[in-house]
User: Fold this.
Amino acid sequence: MEDRLFVFDTTLRDGEQVPGCQLNTVEKIEVAQALEGLGVDIIEAGFPISSPGDFNSVVEISKAVSNPIICALTRAVEKDIDVAADALKYAKRGRIHTGIGTSSYHIKYKLNSNPEDIIERAVRAVKYAKKYVEDVEFYAEDAGRTENEYLARVIEAVITAGATVVNIPDTTGYCLPQMYGEKIKFLKENVKNIDKAIISTHCHNDLGMATANTISGVINGARQVEVTINGVGERAGNTSLEEVAMILKSHKSLGISTAIQSERIYMLSRMVSNLMNMPVQPNKAIVGRNAFAHSSGIHQDGVLKNRENYEIIDPKEVGINESSIVLTARSGRAALKHRLHMLGFDLDKNKIDQVYEEFLKLADKKKSISDDDLFFLVGDARREERKIKLDYIQVISGKSITPVAVIQLDISGEKFEATAKGNGPVDAAIKAVKKIIKREVILEEFLIQAITKGSDDVGKVHMQVAHGDRMLHGFGVNTDIVTASVEAFIDALNKI
Ligand code: KIV
Ligand code: ZN
Assistant:
């Protein structure tokens, strides 16, 4: 009999803390429902005291999702716990996740406290949360750098106070896999009431060891893992869900299973990447564009003879299905709908019409439409109704001439046109937009990437735009990189 491991997804809390990755409530509900379909056991939906938006997201996700436990984060502070309990009022099964720093760094320099006081505050918070919900998870922040004897005392005290899950975060991503595994083993062997709670891992990737540490924790007795899609999260990110799920599937000898429906992984990876405007690195394990691409002659020959010569996972297992139907400008709605369904998107008629319209425009410019193109088209159709839209753009540029751009924008139904010169076509186009919108905005960062391959490929642009003390992120996709740049700039402006 395999041991069951609980998968706790924190894409919508720890993942969403990344600057520029913020989602609105509608987008969060969409991700939460897809996570439910993926089979995660717990969804950390937000940190309700941190903002009205986070509070609202926890409320709406609680209403929209039935199977997974909905979890809300708090500090070990009564007000935080009151607000979290209120946000969880519609959850079929709600969990409060409370905790405090336990390393000497956090005790001394962050909390200006002492070890005994920390234990008291931890116990008080757990008891207070228990007034609202049966299921209380405690996190010992920076447990990775907390001395094991003291950590064991904290954990024993919070379990006595009623904690049902104890989370051992390697908050700074400092641990080596062996160290982290020994920490979990130490708690298993030295906390006398440890059988009353589930031990959870929560590893950050600062040294690239988040997944290795998580697996080491599981081998040593943890039965919950805290993970995010694509490994998104603070700094270098969190442990990625897809890596842990596929490691356990590929190494059956570990005797541990999850409820993850792995064939939905790819779709979720692309959904999160699109909504958060966070590209997946091409060589990312499991979900990177190159994860199943074989380029050298020897490898290609080996794979053709037998896939298992060079692939330990069948791409179909994570939802990468090669299609026999090639989508082109002559494809109809039915073919598009079928392909989207294969990729995990069941859109209503209006959305299909909207995607189909954009699909035809793109198919006119490209020979064939790839799955990656479709992920972007669907992502685009999902974006909120924009106030500022690009009607048209014309740019003249070349060697030994000054680039000039003419632009027309539609702002809430009114048309505005401007012309500007620049030191390049993008500069001219952005200057023309600025002439129309008349706002003090500064372009801080500008990144262009090709999505797939070929000179007819679509270019993807990310921009960071400063407006007062706010930093806005914009995103644009087009076969014309100047248009993609203007779309990205307008996307950021729409967020002002
Ligand atoms: O990394 C961390 O310590 C956390 C806690 C708040 C669980 O995210
Ligand atoms: Zn974290």
Observations:
- The radius of gyration is 25 Å.
- The chain has three domains: 3-276, 293-380, 386-493.
- The chain has a mean pLDDT of 90.
- The first helix runs from residue 25 to 38.
